[in-house]
Design goal:
alpha/beta
């Protein structure tokens, strides 16, 4: 009996980035909230335990659409957030479960599984006790990510430079590749006053493999800042905006207002009434090409992204993904199509509908 051929090793993150773009789908919070498995407000991913099949399916849907990263759904699964909802007892369980779900999906398709830590909402620049508490939270989650076989590590949606510095220090000690993405709020600086561009430069100097920006801003208001980061650093750059039509006057999706609707609680569309501001798939494709052309190679979308957005990103970068089998073909439409099999009478009725 002949020996089985060895399973080829997956190419690592940095190897992939050195040859082409890597597509990363984020946005699990919003998509699972829309699907009815997660509560807006707390945004704690209890779904990982309560409905693991829903998390698995979303990972699979994003992979089907072209994501090459399966990011463990541990965003807000840290001690501080679980304390807020009185569920610290599930801390380790929710993290390991999320990591195992992501690992299973990634290994089945040859994608990379990423361990994930995020903003803790506990850090204060002038309070050393919070620095120690944040480090302890990161060490817990990163420890489990390493034990569960993460291929690389992500620290995302970080608001304070000091918090990013702690996150990177904890991640670097593992020897795994590191990605650090920062939030850009109304101003282009962190909560502790460091400009986001300088923060990225400092993180690169401290050993981050990939630095960049995610969440908060849509493509129109994030990409000018991404360009500044790309020009300022030599390492790989990440860009993961939210797929919403933010503007110079309202640069973040938290700041958007909707004058056409008077029934929104608190008159604030964020986070549950952002539908009118959602970017379409063509805008997402345009963003992906812009990011790639400016030299960004870690490309994705954050809160609000759905699989069709990710497929548009992938196809804009020249990929044919499993989901491309179902990309639009309006030539077959009953009224707007051009196919010879469509009756001319129906083609003529397009002006009536």
């Amino acid at each position: 009996m002949s020996a089985k051929s060895p399973i080829p090793a997956k190419r690592g993150l940095l190897e992939r980035l050195d040859t082409d773009a890597v597509i990363c789908a984020e946005g699990y919070l919003f998509e699972l909230e829309r699907r009815g498995y997660l509560q807006a407000g707390p945004f704690v991913p209890e779904v990982v335990i309560e409905h693991p099949e829903a998390v698995t399916r979303l990972h699979e849907d994003f992979v089907h659409a072209g994501s090459e990263v399966v990011e463990a759904f541990t965003y807000y699964a840290h001690r501080q957030k679980l304390k807020v909802i009185g569920r610290e007892d599930i801390l380790e369980k929710i993290n390991r479960q999320a990591l195992r779900i992501a690992k299973d999906v990634a290994d089945r398709v040859g994608d990379l599984m990423a361990g994930n830590i995020c903003n803790t909402n506990a850090y204060e620049a002038t309070d050393k006790k919070t620095h120690d508490a944040v480090r302890a939270m990161f060490e817990e989650q990163i420890g489990w990510a390493v034990e569960e076989g993460a291929d690389f590590l992500i620290a995302e949606t970080i608001d304070w430079y000091g918090e990013a510095e702690i996150a990177l220090d904890v991640m670097k000690k593992t020897g795994l590749p590191t990605v650090v993405t920062l939030s850009v709020h109304r101003e282009e600086k962190m909560f502790d006053g460091v400009s986001v561009v300088d923060a990225c430069k400092r993180l690169e100097a401290a050993g981050a493999d990939v630095v960049g920006l995610n969440c908060q801003r849509g493509p129109k208001t994030l990409m000018p800042v991404v360009r500044k980061v790309r020009d300022a650093v030599s390492c790989h750059v990440a860009s993961l905006p939210v797929p919403y039509r933010t503007t110079e006057a309202e640069p973040t999706f938290q700041s958007l207002t909707d004058r056409a609707c008077s029934c929104i609680p608190g008159n604030r569309p964020f986070p549950t009434a952002l539908d009118p501001f959602t970017c379409n798939r063509y805008e997402c494709a345009e963003y992906a090409r812009e990011a790639y052309d400016m030299g960004v190679r870690y490309i994705g979308l954050c809160c609000g992204a759905a699989p069709h957005h990710i497929r548009a990103v992938a196809e804009a970068l020249g990929r044919t993904v499993p989901g491309s089998r179902y990309s639009p073909d309006m030539s077959k439409h009953a009224f707007f199509g051009s196919d010879a099999a469509i009756p001319d009478a129906y083609k003529g009725r397009r002006v009536d509908i």
